[in-house]
């Protein structure tokens, strides 16, 4: 799996770099104060902007000082950050306008081998209009106008970054799309006593986990690395995570059990694929659907496994009943893979592991722009979007902004008026025609900015 692209925020002191950094990472990681020079070391974090993921670096304010002084060493840190970046965000204060230090930073950035996006911060209202006009003389084109403090203009920043970052996190073309560094991160979850630890022991071929008839033996989430040797294939690495059983929230009163359940939920966050293990002798219960829904909400790939299949009664009707219940209970995702296994005998384990690798492939899939938009045209032609109030909704194009889970943005006019039923149609069509199967798919919408309207368009998530 390749690394995220890197974006560095640069600018003179006190123009709002740390505020923008916190906005993009979604947490107050960087200290923010009205005094200049609060940031000294460069700080890094994982940023997400309308589904576009990248590594963001907050840098110290750029100042012209001797390299031996503290401000000079801070400047060297900023220069090092730009040296490793794929894109530099050059931030200036629109209200203060362009000052000589901004011009010096611009001269330096023109010599750096990195694309530059000029950003006018504090541009809310009209107070920054003059500064925006002055910035055109810097030679970086029209600035992106935003307010890092209030979150305005983030959609415009997304549109500026997308063409510069799109594809930066793709697997190199000479490698197959289903090859990734590191093991398959596979978490086994379910209600207490479903046989999770017994299954993990059978996969490993040793009594690595304590098992027994009592429910709730496992408390901590235990991670174990394993080399899987499929019949007739090459060895593949798996990181197995056994978790504590998750009972209905209302029944969890003991503090230790609460901590165990929280630990299991963290394991879901860490995993790539999650196997929800059901006890075939008990069938599907409401708590199983709650766990499955939690996994899908976290954007993880899901596989259902019916354990204790060797002692299940009326196997065929049980299997079909579980499939039907899943179709009804997980309406947001149709066709989740359902496998049958036995932790006691080992039957079905190779097939389960293969299904997990296949599911990760779909979860990690990136579709080329041409293929994606050909599908888009066919889908719209087959079922055109509705026209609420007689006004046509026009969808122009779609782009994939990330994988794991696959996430897409559709651009068009009045897309905020699309009904949920049409969004479901697009997602289901995408799963069927583009090979995403039953993995979570994120679909967002973006309308272009209307220069005659203060409302800059909207976007949604699916």
Quaternary organisation: single chain
* CATH fold topology of the largest domain: Rossmann fold
The overall number of domains is 3
Q: Low-confidence parts, pLDDT < 50 over ≥5 residues?
A: 29-41, 171-179, 451-462
Shape, principal axes of CA atoms: elongated
Number of helices: 12
Please estimate the helix content: 25-40%
* The first-level CATH class name of the largest domain: Alpha Beta
What portion of residues belong to β-strands? 15-25%
SSE order: EHEEHEHEHEHEHEEHEHEHEHHEEHE
Would you count the extended β strands for me? Answer: 15
Q: How far apart, in Å, are the first and last alpha carbons?
A: 25 Å
The CATH H-level homologous superfamily of the largest domain: P-loop containing nucleotide triphosphate hydrolases
Average residue pLDDT: 83
User: Biggest sheet, strands in spatial order?
Assistant: 2-3-1-4-5-6
Structural class call reads: alpha/beta
Itemize the secondary structure elements and their pairings:
Layout: E1 6-10, H1 17-25, E2 43-49, E3 52-58, H2 70-83, E4 87-93, H3 100-111, E5 116-121, H4 129-135, E6 144-145, H5 154-165, E7 184-189, H6 196-204, E8 222-228, E9 236-242, H7 255-270, E10 273-279, H8 286-297, E11 301-307, H9 315-329, E12 337-340, H10 349-363, H11 369-382, E13 394-402, E14 407-413, H12 420-434, E15 442-446
Parallel strand pairs: 1-3, 1-4, 4-5, 5-6, 7-9, 7-10, 10-11, 11-12, 14-15
Antiparallel strand pairs: 2-3, 8-9, 13-14
